[in-house]
Specification:
Elements (H helix, E strand, L loop, with lengths): L1 H24 L4 E7 L7 H8 L2 H4 L2 E7 L2 H10 L4 E2 L2 H9 L4 E3 L10 E4 L13 E4 L5 H12 L9 E4 L3 H9 L5 E4 L3 H7 L4 E4 L12 E3 H6 L1 H20 L1 H12 L3 H11 L11 H13 L16 H9 L3
Parallel strand pairs: 1-2, 1-3, 6-7, 6-8
Antiparallel strand pairs: 4-10, 5-8, 5-9
Length: about 325
């Protein structure tokens, strides 16, 4: 009987030891909410991180909520959202004193295209015309202003910029003749080109400003640094997946944007070159954005890039992922 007891104890111990590695592998689940500005390919990295399980891999149960940039900032400050993917708006808010920091960027340059009705053959011909954008104050809006200025059009006096909403609504607005031109990203730029609307210019060829990326409050960064790095690592892995796994990425595009295979592939080919390789925020891009705000008298002249971005988290996450 004693031998049986010893044997039973040994078996029990082996079973417990055998379960230990699995128990150690279990990652506590943390619920987080991330806001984003529009249902467009600009946020493809976030969708890949969600749909391909990179957030879950790092123990994050992630809710993605689409809201306008201004609401995204308000949600961060109130605690209703943990993170926002509206990098430009975050930088502008931080420059005005909000306790928010930009942390990483997934896109090194905007990939909007200025699409117009067929009678317009150049951007200069849009002088005095209406241009549709997603929202006033977002990167889409800033890109429109910069592009018009680049071609000699004063965006305040020589054009009428109209906020319409989600990019699908912007796409529909030009189709029904509500506006003369629109600033849109793929797939809508691809669709408009197919429908006979010429693409007069592309922001990726003209501008260098932070576009989309992760931002959070200073409080979140200080109190939940480990969680912030989990989110960063999930998105960095999604960035790598986006470039290395064409088939899997195309499947995400098809699912998220209801595209057929050829359309998804064409849209992917248009945007893939604009995605960052390491998530690092380019300082010159931040300075370009701050210069716009300084010239408009919207922020103090003394504001620097170091006051609106936190680069340390990205460096730590990259190191922990092996560079």
């Amino acid at each position: 009987m004693r031998r049986l007891s010893v044997l039973f104890g040994a078996i029990t111990l082996l079973l417990v030891l055998g379960q230990t590695p699995q128990a150690q592998e279990r990652v506590p689940v943390e619920k987080i909410r991330i806001t984003y500005a529009s249902n467009s390919l600009a946020f493809l990295v976030m969708f890949v991180a969600k749909d391909r399980g990179f957030y879950a891999k790092h123990g994050l149960e992630t809710e993605l909520v689409q809201v306008r940039p201004g609401i995204a900032i308000a949600a961060l400050l109130s605690g209703d959202a943990d993170y926002a993917e509206v990098l430009g708006s975050a930088i502008r808010s931080a420059a005005k004193g909000a306790p928010i920091r930009a942390i990483s960027t997934t896109i090194r340059a905007p990939f909007f295209s200025l699409a117009a009705h067929p009678q317009f053959r150049s951007v200069k011909e849009l002088r005095g015309k209406t241009v549709g954008v997603t929202a006033i104050g977002g990167t889409n809006y800033i890109s429109t202003r910069l592009m018009l200025q680049h071609f000699g059009i004063d965006p305040d006096r020589e054009a009428k910029i109209i906020a319409i909403g989600d990019e699908k609504l912007v796409y529909e607005a030009i189709k029904v003749g509500r506006v003369d031109a629109v600033m849109v990203a793929p797939p809508f730029s691809v669709l408009l080109k197919r429908d006979g609307f010429p693409l007069l210019a592309h922001t990726a060829e003209l501008l260098s400003i932070p576009f989309v990326g992760l931002s959070a409050t200073v409080q979140k960064i200080n109190q939940s640094r480990g969680q912030v790095k989990k989110v960063l690592k999930a998105e960095l892995e999604a960035l790598r997946y986006l470039r290395s796994n064409l088939r899997g990425t195309i499947e995400v595009i098809q699912k998220r944007f209801a595209m057929d295979g050829p359309m998804a592939l064409e849209s992917y080919q248009v945007v893939v070159g604009a995605f960052s390789r390491d998530g690092r925020i380019p300082q010159q891009g931040v300075e370009n954005l701050l210069d716009l705000e300084r010239k408009g008298g919207l922020i103090p002249q003394s504001v620097t890039a170091a006051q609106v971005v936190d680069l340390s988290l990205g460096e730590e996450a990259l190191k922990e992922l092996g560079g």
